[in-house]
């Protein structure tokens, strides 16, 4: 005979169902079907005791999480593995949050037309025996073989996206860079390496790479990808406010021009460095991703003379681009 629920158990269930129902109007302009998402949300609550516990303690957080589901447009259907309701402590507050997987971030970018396809590859110690990284616009030689086992520890990874114009854009991160971002997140600073970073480490590494790579993808006029990143970074405690950066493990503001020496002339830079800067700035102009390129160059060049040169090239190009667009608008 099935066990009958106690009165104590049915009261919070009814309260939470009412809280979910109160979000129905937010789905009126969403691509998602509210009735289906309600079933997925209630199923998640019934299958995760800690999630249910946090929802009972903080029902408003459940409501806000459902608002985010509607605005982002990723289904809670567990089969798709795009988004989930999960329990999390942020700033010592127990709450329900919408978690977006790295597959979910890719799906958002694909729907927006920012990219046509994307893959994330982890690189391990033994892969380095044959693996050869080229640059941010050319796929690597001898990529890791996914069918080889016992390849050692993860040393980093890269995201490879196919843009609508048929070009590739790649973004690589070492494990040290990934862990610096992990350690700078509010979640890890307040509780240590726990939760998803302990239980789903590879998934979180892949998500970190995609989050960093996505800054280089064209928005195509869609704000959904930026909103998804904001939810992960700010509401879920996974990252930093957008005005902050992580450099050498420290949370800092972007380098001000006054902190840098005068930019050296191009002929004092190596051809390899100058070519790298040219390609990065070309891509920044194509995507109008000036701030993203600046962040990348600051992190890439720790030598202040090299950094000064790179930022000088970037700012000159940005100024010329904006002046050209201004003249076109007047004409």
Automatic annotation (TrEMBL):
GO biological process, one term: DNA metabolic process
GO MF terms, alphabetically ordered: DNA binding
Top-rank lineage group of the source organism: Bacteria
Name of the protein in question: Recombination protein RecT
């Amino acid at each position: 005979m099935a066990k009958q629920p106690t009165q104590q158990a049915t009261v919070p269930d009814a309260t939470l169902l009412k809280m979910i129902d109160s979000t129905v109007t937010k789905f009126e302009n969403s691509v998602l079907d509210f009735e289906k998402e309600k079933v997925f949300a209630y199923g998640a609550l019934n299958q995760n005791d800690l999630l249910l516990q946090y929802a009972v303690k903080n029902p408003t957080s459940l409501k806000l999480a459902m608002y985010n589901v509607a605005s982002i447009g990723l289904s809670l259907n567990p089969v798709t593995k795009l988004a989930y309701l999960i329990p999390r402590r942020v700033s010592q507050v127990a709450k329900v949050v919408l978690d977006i997987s790295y597959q979910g971030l890719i799906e958002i970018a694909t729907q927006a037309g920012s990219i046509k396809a994307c893959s994330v590859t982890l690189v391990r110690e033994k892969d380095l025996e044959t693996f050869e990284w080229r640059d941010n616009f050319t796929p690597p030689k001898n990529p890791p073989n996914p069918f080889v086992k016992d390849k050692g520890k993860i040393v980093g990874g890269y995201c490879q996206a196919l843009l609508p114009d048929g070009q590739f854009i790649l973004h690589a991160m070492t494990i040290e860079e990934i862990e610096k971002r992990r350690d700078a997140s509010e979640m890890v600073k307040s509780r240590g390496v726990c939760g998803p970073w302990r239980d789903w480490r590879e998934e979180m590494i892949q998500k970190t790479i995609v989050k960093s790579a996505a800054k280089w993808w064209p928005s195509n006029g869609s704000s959904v990808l930026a909103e998804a990143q904001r939810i992960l970074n700010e509401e879920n405690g996974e990252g930093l406010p957008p005005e902050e950066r992580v450099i050498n493990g420290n949370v800092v503001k972007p380098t001000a021009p006054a902190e840098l020496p005068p930019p050296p002339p191009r002929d004092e830079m190596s051809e390899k460095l100058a070519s790298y800067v040219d390609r990065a700035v070309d891509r920044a102009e194509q995507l109008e991703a000036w701030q993203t390129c600046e962040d990348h160059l600051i992190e890439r060049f720790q030598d202040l003379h090299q950094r000064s040169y790179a930022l000088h090239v970037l700012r000159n190009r940005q100024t010329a681009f904006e002046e050209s667009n201004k003249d076109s608008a007047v004409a």
